[in-house]
Write a structure and sequence with these properties.
homodimer, TIM Barrel, eight-stranded parallel barrel, 36% helix, Monooxygenase (chains A, B)
């Protein structure tokens, strides 16, 4: 087995990533809010020795619920329920830095990390959309402001995770000392966006820091990833684009004193799997035949910023030049795709229906393994964010047929080698920035948590 | 079995409610952040057919961590992990209305309610303490402001839970209609504290509304409970005080068009159980002998608002007249207790160590059942909030010895009769305030959720 190992994340989305998945006979849309569905998916991922499962999120009902299975579960509560039925697979939840407070986010991820024995990961998003802003009564912040807030948010959250040193809990029952208050530190953060005293009221997470994941592909997003993220999910349609993104992102790490191996690049791939090419194409066609054009048209109109009607379906995508709110890199990808392949709007909708701009690949397990290997060995990917078109069937197909092929080729683990998400991703456990100084240089009392603060009335 | 049934909630707190529990040989303080500990407790509660388990919370490290096992898990993530290993027991989490946004709270409880099959409850707190305010960078709001915000917060949260009608999801795969957009409504709330557009992005919870629980005993707190709460946790030391509280609270319900049976009053009780009175007293004494006076002194000083030192231990509680921040009703209870029983500060600390002002009752299972029956049958309680001094042992003792005694007396269920927390508490499922109007009076398009709002880039 080569020293560099492929990493695979299962991106779980309702009953599948294809927008018409809920209409396909292989799915049961009533399972959208059924925890047993997601527990089954997590167990399948673990059976396949996948690194992690991942839940996207937004803070508004987005998309036309008339024509898609929307309105599912909240990621952090759901992942805690998945932690209870799995032992190894990582658990990555999306949480916004724009509509949250860092104390809550630090605490919930610390808690999930304890609950899962060190398997929590945080996909950091800054929430571009107008709909989310309207659920929190604020004006949608500008792009740069969102990233400035996100950077300060990360400093606070990681500071809170470090507020308890690893060995703060002493547990001396006879001596009556539960914790060494000299190893629990206030944060005393006072910045433009947040004032947070700390310490956290949960001890340091098993991973030190839950894994930091990011998905923005704008310039600000890539710089943010280079500074903070340990894994990046990205949408890439071609090998050349993926290589360029990979090289760009890895090249930015040195600015922040980091090495190329400190961050994994994981492009999305939606594998439509058949035992023959023909069977794969048939499944793909079945799903395409279930598309409701009005649904995709509305999504596409919003993304490109012009109102597209059914009249536009069999014509090329009109010229779109104005910037729209958020998601610029996804917008650029979609326009480039339409132009490069000279697609009509209908054809473009078909290409987006499977993965919202992520790469869709229909074929046999061997063919899908070939593509994974090609990208992995040619500077385009450290692994993949696997987005099955239908769930659970598409994930079962991947685990039962593609994973064994990758194992045979020596690209993927046959057994888990550790217990934490960081172990799965071969990433180190961060030291605390408040690691204990040598005796004689101990912080003075003003820097420690001593006397009682308040009685908890309950 | 009488038509009026006793209700029992297991209040789970670390390794026990006694402040010295972590030092006692029957506990393992390292389990404070171990999910298996809490899963074991939830299973024990379910084995005893208890109505629910409950987790308190605060948003700061409160109390002196040198001398108590503090720094545990966040309630919502933890309860989701308990949902995964239980089938009937209710799951009640404390969440503050002062340091949260209603959209998040509505969504997380809706999610927990789906995950648990209708077993979620929300203990609503307004967070009186200074330490919590400092973790969120704001000034501590005044008492009345906290309750005004809480009331608006509740209106928004319940409105969001009602934003999807129960039958909004149609799931017509052939026709391509997932949901009837005419049955999903924006909230368009615009009030002094919140502007929230809605709808929620999670469908209506199985219980309609997760159960609403409250614990404040101030005048504002009691009015809030009478308006919104369906169960109230309260600290009461004497039968007379408990009867007065019960009568007062039930009497307030009519002002809000509610009936006495719409709200359950559940005083706290910390049962120290022995097979003989002597064995119970011995366990109580073992715990008292492990008390570290400095811990309780700091807690008590904070509560009453004067600095008490070890010199004060063997004297009566000094005169304390000034008001302090928050927790006024608990402060009054503690001062009354010291005066009524003419206690020294050391004796008072001993009385508070077991339940922070809640009633501690040491005795045989029969004696504890007697007291429960006495309060239940004499207008003081609809049930109890059971606070075992050590965990899991104290909960096992209660379930294995007190519960059977209550069952023999016909006071408590032998089997669960329903599936939801509302079923356990014999409380009705609320209708949606947006229940579907008859055909012909359907809301117009402006009041429904139609076209796509945004593409989710992920």
């Amino acid at each position: 087995m080569p020293t560099r190992t492929l990493h695979l994340n299962a991106f779980l989305m309702g009953v599948g990533h294809h927008e018409a998945a809920w209409r396909h006979p292989r799915t049961e849309p009533a399972r959208l809010t059924d925890v047993r569905h997601y527990q089954q998916l997590a167990r399948i991922a673990e059976r396949g020795r996948l690194d992690s499962v991942f839940l996207a999120d937004s803070l508004a009902l987005q998309g036309d619920v008339r024509h898609n299975a929307l309105g599912g579960l909240e990621p952090l509560t759901l992942l805690a329920a998945l932690a209870a039925v799995t032992d190894h697979v990582g658990l990555i939840a999306t949480v916004s830095t724009t509509y949250n407070e860092p104390f809550h986010v630090a605490r919930k991820f610390a808690s999930l990390d304890h609950i899962s024995g060190g398997r929590a990961g945080w996909n950091i998003v800054t929430s571009a959309g107008e709909a989310e802003a309207r659920n929190f009564g604020i004006e949608r912040p500008a792009h740069a402001d969102r990233y400035a807030r996100a950077a300060e948010f990360l400093d606070v959250v990681t500071g809170l995770w470090d507020s308890w040193e690893d060995d703060a809990v002493v547990g001396d029952r006879l001596g009556g000392v539960y914790a060494d208050a000299g190893r629990i530190h206030p944060l005393d953060h006072d910045g433009p966006h947040f004032r947070v005293r700390g310490p956290l009221n949960t001890s340091r997470p098993p991973q030190g820091h839950p894994l930091l994941v990011q998905a923005g592909s704008s310039e600000d997003g890539k710089d943010f990833a280079a500074r903070y993220a340990e894994a990046v999910f990205t949408a890439q349609q071609t090998l050349a684009d993926a290589q360029a993104f990979y090289t760009d992102l890895k090249g930015r790490l040195a600015r922040y004193g980091r090495h190329p191996g400190d961050l994994l690049v994981l492009p999305g791939i939606s594998p439509v799997i058949g035992s023959t090419e023909r069977e794969a194409r048939r499944l793909e066609q079945e799903l395409q035949d279930l598309i409701i054009p009005a649904y995709g048209l509305a999504q596409l109109s919003h993304l490109v910023g012009i109102e597209l009607t059914e009249d536009a379906l069999d014509r090329p995508l009109p010229d779109v030049s104005a910037e729209t709110e958020g998601a610029q890199s996804r917008r650029r990808l979609v326009i480039d795709l339409a132009r490069r392949e000279n697609l009509t709007v209908r054809q473009l909708l078909g290409r987006l229906a499977g993965g919202r701009g992520h790469r869709v690949l229909a074929g046999t397990p061997e063919r899908i393994a070939d593509e994974i290997q090609l990208w992995f060995e040619n500077g385009a990917a450290d692994g993949f964010n696997v987005m099955p078109p239908v769930l659970p069937g598409g994930l079962e197909d991947f685990v039962d047929h593609v994973v064994p092929e990758l194992q045979i080729r020596g690209l993927f683990r046959r057994e888990y080698e550790g217990r934490t998400l960081r172990d799965n991703y071969d990433l180190p456990r961060p030291a605390s920035r408040r690691a204990r100084p040598p005796a004689g240089e101990r912080p003075d009392a003003a820097d420690t948590v001593g006397s009682a603060d308040a009685v908890v009335a309950s």
